[in-house]
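Reviewer comment 2.1 asked that we show a complete input and output for one of the modelled complexes. We chose the 5,10-Methenyltetrahydrofolate case, as it is the one discussed in the main text.
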Amino acid sequence: MSTEENIAKTIDGKTIAANIRTGIKEDVDKLVASGKRAPGIVVILVGDRQDSHTYVRNKKKTATEMGFVSIDCILPGNTSQEEVIEIVRKYNQMPEIDGILVQLPLPSHINEETVLNEIDITKDVDGFHPINIGKLAMRGRVPLFEPCTPKGCIELLLQSGVTIEGKNAVVLGRSNIVGLPVAMLLMNRNATVTICHSKTANLKEVVAQADILVAAIGVAKFVKKDWVKKGAVVIDVGMNTDENNKLCGDVDFNEVKHVASQITPVPGGVGPMTIAMLLKNTLISAMRRQGVEKL
Ligand SMILES: Nc1nc(=O)c2c([nH]1)NC[C@@H]1CN(c3ccc(C(=O)N[C@@H](CCC(=O)O)C(=O)O)cc3)C=[N+]21
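Response of the prediction step:
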């Protein structure tokens, strides 16, 4: 009897993202060398959530390293919805801004939908505007931008040699920013997609069908070894803290690595890809808005 133990290949999002950033930097250098503007991005942050400030700081650092013009618009927590809308409109009008990102979540007195509706769809580098999401959800329509975290998940699959077409993909979670759009991207690439959520019956049995499993529910180490089909590819979008206050995903990595064929770690998996895809979207926007088709 064979006692050979399976250990999944770890999908190294950190390295894959670094390579993508190198390509983006080269493209920005070419753009600037051709006499065009460097890409410009503004991040609008309302309030003082510590995690949001950390993300925004990281985005600015990375964007600046890539040669982008990066503006942070940090507003106090008591900023009114009307003031935020005025600021979005101001950046809509600024020709040197190619991407507008409103950091989520917004404080509870501000209506997220109302604010996101204001972003110029040609600058919607997050891909969160209802027109862009709507196009993503329709056959034969092409959004101006695809949401960054879902796009990062697909990129990790592609770069890891995973065939998406014809596979059973199971998505845990139905959020507007991850679960829903990642399901649509997988379906557009001809996977058979099942979306699971808190009311799904026989969750374990559904998850066990997954050739590709994307976990985006926000519950630490929720997915256990006995849930996962042998040889499945597991993409963990979770950002939770464990009992030792350490960052961990929605998947119990140390268990599931014994059954999966490939698995993303947290940190070092999807997270770094999100920022790389944001910069990629902003570069695409800067090229379009300056009439550059190829570099
Ligand atoms: N409008 C908007 N767009 C967003 O894209 C957006 C947002 N709002 N709100 C918050 C979430 C969260 N998010 C992350 C980005 C990068 C990492 C990341 O790089 N994580 C690293 C390091 C994490 C660490 O060490 O703290 C990793 O996973 O390895 C994580 C989370 C973007 N978000």
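Residues 13-33 form the longest helix (21 residues). We note this here for comparison with the apo prediction described in Section 3.2.
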